[in-house]
Structure formats: C-alpha cells, structure tokens
Design a protein that fits this description.
The chain is an alpha/beta fold and 242 residues long. It has 7 helices and 6 strands. Helix 2 runs parallel beside helix 3 and helix 3 packs parallel to helix 4. The structure holds farnesyl diphosphate.
Length: 242
C-alpha cells in the first residue's frame, strides 16, 4: 500500500539495532553483523530517496559504545573509514549530502579526516541529507549546546538551545524507528524526540528491507500529530499540524 507523498515523513531517524544478534545467529563474529548493517544502510538511503524522505539520521556509534570490547570498537571505526572510501562516489552520484554528528576530539585523526572528506565532497548534494551520529549521545548534544550559549554569554531558552543542537540545520525527526525489538531511545536525539512518532520493529537491522521501511512509513501515516492540542483543533488532515 503506497503512502500519499504528503504523509511520508520529511525526516526519519533510525536506531540500527540487532547487528550482533544477527551475526550470533549465524555463528559469525559481531563485526560481520555491522558489515551487513552497512549494506542495509546503503539500501535504506536509496529507498528513502525514492520515497521522498529528505533527511535520514542514523545512530552508528553512541557515546556509550566505547564500553564495548576493544576489537568491536576498532572494527566499527574501520568499517566507517572503509565504507566512506568505498561508497563516497556512489553517494555523490545519488545526491546524498553526508554529515556527521557527535564529539570528534576523541576520534583518531584518520577517522576525523575521513569524516571531513566525506562532508566536503558531498556538501553540494541536495537529494537527501544523511546524518550519521557517530560518538553521539543525546545528553552530550544538550550539554554542548548549553555550553556554547554560556560561553557566548547568551540566554538559555528553548529556542536558543534548539538552535545550538548538532541537528539544528535539519530539524527534529518526524519518525524515529528502532529495529531489533528493544523499546528505548538509548540516549538518541533526546531533545529532538519530544514530538517524534516512535516505531519499534522486531526486525534485526541487517534484515531491515524496503517492506520493513514501508511498514514504518505506513504506521507513521496513520498517526495523528497533535503537539499538545486536541483532535478538533487540528486543521485538515492528520499531518498538516504545525
Ligand atoms: C547496534 O547493534 C548497532 C551498532 C552499535 C552499530 C551500528 C552500525 C552499523 C549499522 C554500521 C553502519 C555504521 C557506520 C559506521 C556507517 P548491536 O551491536 O547492539 O546489536 P545487538 O543488540 O544484536 O547486540
């Protein structure tokens, strides 16, 4: 069942969970699940472009993921660098603008350079913004925004804080999807999630296909976004509220 273009979320954010379980079920190392996760992310980016989604924000490495075994952490860093060097040309052709969100100081120079190169090379692309949250945490984001305001001697208000979040340029997600069956945000986009629609899927991320994405978009299309108002106060269709 196709969803009317106006009911497709402008901005989708995804917690790509379940890579480790997908690998364990196949007696593979966890890192094999993350590698498969990159393939699924590539497919999802294409599917989002085709469906008219404008911004896709994904959680690739959280501030807390440093606590994982050292080989998994270094494996995730390696996957990122390799995926960027392999996929950059294709992403450019597809009109994807890559942006990385998160604390960069703790990343190695090699990783930082690879993020900068990908951002620079795709800066003029307009089809879809792909925000990759890497060494990101929602609490970190709120604190860095508050610190920036304090350092500039500016008042902290909801508006000024929102303008200083790492996602300020792309706005809040309309739909947050978490795969892998867990029902929590795990420090993802805490401030930005205030009025996002949440969708939890049991599908493990390496098995998240177009049908699963369409299931999430269809569920979103049935939601009534009231932003604190009553149904009666909403103008016209369920997705035109501001
Ligand atoms: C959570 O699954 C997933 C991650 C911590 C990493 C997500 C990364 C990718 C999908 C690869 C794409 C990333 C880059 C670098 C662009 P889990 O490992 O917690 O799975 P589990 O809950 O089954 O153990």
């Amino acid at each position: 069942m196709a969803v009317a273009p106006e009911s497709v979320p402008r901005h989708i954010a995804i917690v790509m969970d379940g890579n480790g379980r997908w690998a364990s079920k196949r007696f593979l190392p966890r890192i094999a699940g993350h590698k498969q996760g990159v393939e699924v992310l590539k497919r999802t980016v294409r599917a989002c472009v085709l469906r008219g989604v404008q911004v896709l924000t994904v959680f690739a490495f959280s501030s807390e993921n440093w606590k994982r075994p050292a080989d998994e952490v270094s494996g995730l860093m390696e996957i990122l660098v390799v995926a960027l060097s392999r996929e950059l040309n294709q992403l450019k052709k597809e009109g994807v603008h890559l942006q990385f969100i998160g604390e960069r100081e703790s990343l190695s120079e090699r990783v930082r350079n690879s993020l900068l190169e990908a951002e620079r090379e795709t800066a003029d692309n307009r089809k879809l913004i792909l925000n990759v949250c890497f060494n990101y945490g929602g609490r970190w984001d709120v604190v860095q925004a508050a610190q920036a305001l304090a350092a500039a001697g500016l008042p902290i208000t909801e508006e000024s804080l929102a303008r200083n979040l790492a996602t300020a340029a792309v706005g809040d997600p309309d739909l947050i999807v978490r795969t892998g069956g867990e029902m929590r945000l795990s420090n993802f986009l805490l401030w930005q999630a205030a009025y996002s629609e949440l969708y939890f899927s049991h599908v493990l991320w390496p098995e998240f296909d177009d049908a699963a994405l369409d299931g999430a978009i269809q569920a979103y299309a049935t939601r009534e976004r009231r932003y604190g108002m009553t149904s009666q106060q909403l103008p016209g269709t369920s997705h035109t509220a501001t």
